[in-house]
Write a structure and sequence with these properties.
Chain A: It is found in: Membrane. Chain A: It comes from Sordaria brevicollis. The complex is a heterodimer of chains A (260) and B (311). By secondary structure, chain A is mostly helical. Chain A has one domain. Chain B is mainly α. Chain B has three domains: 64 residues, no CATH class; 82 residues; 132 residues, no CATH class. Chain B has 15 helices and no strands. Classes of the chains: A mainly alpha (260), B mainly alpha (311). The interface between A and B is large, with 35 and 37 residues.
Chain lengths: 260, 311
């Protein structure tokens, strides 16, 4: 069988200096810029007032009683349970008790949650705007060039990824276009940023995307959650606990477990 | 182990605190330039506390200035440290009152400043206004009921007033926050034991306290099987129970009952054996037995000799 002849494309070596390097440098610089911009734009975490601290910590207290009830004797647990269940059900710990049972608060009407959303918007914007700009810049100036050949073979599936902007059917997928180099840079510069800016930088978009998804809000009551309902649910959880104590038979366990 | 500036020095013996405070010139000589390290600011804070303890107000003020320069005077923690410093420098009660007024003014503007709230409570207590301190603490715990430090302080306050059941309640809250703290279990046992000694002879309530004290000490040993205070308390309770030969009094539903006399006997033997082991090893300064507080070991030795046990 005849060997497939190795494709060779004669490229101007200047392509390398005038396309590959500029794109890389611009990507790194925007990453660094984005990091400092987001540091500047970061607003200090909003202070909670006493009422909302009380609301949150009381609920937390209820959760603590529920999960660590076994350290108490039955009697002292029962007193706490009765007190907490009554208080939770009557809404004694709510920030504004008159709104209890009023259904879901509109997240857009609450100024504090608006602020949180604005912060998220700012982050998203800081990511989207530079990316759009750079991509249109690359498209305007460098589209259609083949700039380099990867040093390892690839299957045909990579063609659409690596040769975006170059409409040549038979070209080996190892050849890469400038826009593909841009995409590679987006995902591949993470470690460069880690090196330049420290590990918790704001430049890497991967981190931002992860943060956007998995970053559970530090506030227990995000926008749109009704604290009254949470308290009621917690009261129910407390009410159904079947008490046992870790102190039951502790002396027998001790005598079995320890030898001097 | 040599004392380190990286840990909070509040619980160190005086000699160690002095040793730390004497490092002040070296630490303060280093200029602030260069990169921050993780431990740098913790070092300054702990040095500040040690210097205040040993009366080196000058070095403490220098530490304070550096902290303030870095974090700003409106940082809550820095504010509390600044307050602590002016408390230490106050020379008479009038100046302390002035500091207290300052705290009140700060809290007026921002009633969620937790470090300052705590300082205010501590100041009230040290000025002898214990009931004010207690009510302020109760108020604080109303909006922040998940603060273990505050609960244990409240327990200590009530205990100093002789209000055992309130002290026990507050300490139980600490246990709810950190269920595996063996020192808290043992402390709760101590409180129950003291409550039993004061609650009059015989009767169900005394036995209830003793039974729970026994169990608390046992739990604390179960969690940490070298804990001297746990064994000490266990020994105290079992000795007393064996001496009284208490009959099983009628108890309410849901309270702890005393174990069988045979079990108490065995617990007593266990505590005696372990205590004498600890005393023997730590007086010989054996390897691996050095961490015990000397006064606690001495107390254990005394307890053993009271009971006529030869080492």
């Amino acid at each position: 069988m005849a060997q497939v002849p190795v494709q060779t494309i004669h490229r101007d070596p200047q392509l390398f200096y005038w396309i590959l390097f500029p794109i890389t440098i611009v990507m790194i610089l925007t990453g660094v810029l984005r990091h400092y911009a987001s540091v500047l734009m970061q607003s200090a975490p909003k202070k909670l007032d006493q009422k909302s601290i009380r609301e949150q910590r009381s609920l937390l207290h209820g959760i603590n009683v529920r999960s660590n009830f076994h350290t108490l004797s039955k009697k002292s647990f029962a007193t706490r349970r009765d007190a907490l269940v009554t208080a939770f059900e009557s809404g004694a710990y709510l920030k504004d008790p008159e709104r209890a049972g009023g259904g879901q608060p509109n997240p857009l009407s609450d100024p504090s949650s608006m602020e949180g959303m604005m912060g998220m918007m700012k982050n998203q914007m800081a990511m989207i705007i530079p990316n759009t700009l750079i991509m249109s810049w690359i498209n305007a100036f460098f589209s259609g060039y083949v700039i380099m050949k990867l040093p390892f073979p690839l299957t045909i599936k990579f063609k659409s990824m690596l040769q975006a902007g170059v409409m040549t059917k038979d070209m080996d997928p190892r050849w890469m276009s400038s826009i593909s180099w841009y995409f590679l840079c987006i995902f591949g510069l993470q470690s460069v940023f880690n090196f330049l800016l420290g590990s918790d930088n704001a430049a890497s978009q991967m981190a931002q995307q992860m943060g956007g998804m998995g970053g559970a809000p530090a506030q227990m009551f995000g926008p749109g959650v009704d604290p009254d309902k949470q308290f009621k649910a917690e009261a129910e959880n407390l009410a159904v606990i079947e008490h046992y104590s870790v102190l039951d038979n502790v002396e027998d366990r001790l005598l079995e477990g320890i030898s001097v | 182990m040599a004392p380190s500036l990286l840990y909070n020095p509040a619980k160190l013996p005086p000699s160690a605190a002095l040793q730390l405070a004497q490092q002040a010139p070296i630490v303060l000589q280093q200029s602030l330039s260069g990169t921050e390290t993780v431990d740098q600011w913790a070092t300054y804070e702990n040095l500040l506390l040690s210097c205040l303890r040993t009366g080196d107000d000058e070095a403490a003020a220098k530490c304070m200035d550096r902290l303030e320069e870095r974090f700003g005077a409106d940082n809550e923690r820095v504010m509390a440290l600044r307050g602590l410093l002016s408390e230490a420098q106050a020379e008479n009660n009038g100046e302390l009152e002035a500091v207290l007024k300052q705290y009140d003014a700060i809290l007026e503007g921002n009633n969620t400043n937790i470090p300052i709230t705590k300082r205010r409570i501590a100041l009230l207590r040290s000025m002898g206004r214990v009931s004010d301190a207690a009510s302020a603490l109760v108020q604080f715990l109303d909006f922040s009921p998940t603060d273990a430090e505050a609960w244990s302080e409240l327990s200590d306050l009530y205990f100093s007033q002789g209000l055992y059941s309130q002290a026990i309640y507050a300490l139980e809250e600490v246990l709810l926050l950190s269920p595996n703290a063996w020192n808290i279990h043992a402390r709760l046992g101590e409180l129950q034991y003291m409550a039993a000694t004061t609650s009059g002879n015989g009767g169900g309530s005394q036995q209830k306290y003793l039974a729970e004290a026994l169990k608390r000490f046992a739990r604390s040993i179960e969690l940490c099987d070298d804990y001297l205070r746990g064994y000490y308390g266990l020994k105290l309770v079992t000795t007393r129970l064996l001496k009284e030969q208490a009959k099983q009094a009628k108890t309410d539903e849901g309270e702890f009952t005393l174990p069988e006399p045979r079990t108490i006997q065995r617990l007593d033997e266990l505590a005696t054996a372990k205590l004498s082991e600890i005393v023997r090893h730590s007086s010989l300064k054996d390897r691996g037995w050095r961490g015990y507080d000397e006064r606690e070991v001495a107390a254990a030795r005394e307890l053993l000799s009271q009971n006529g046990i030869e080492r």
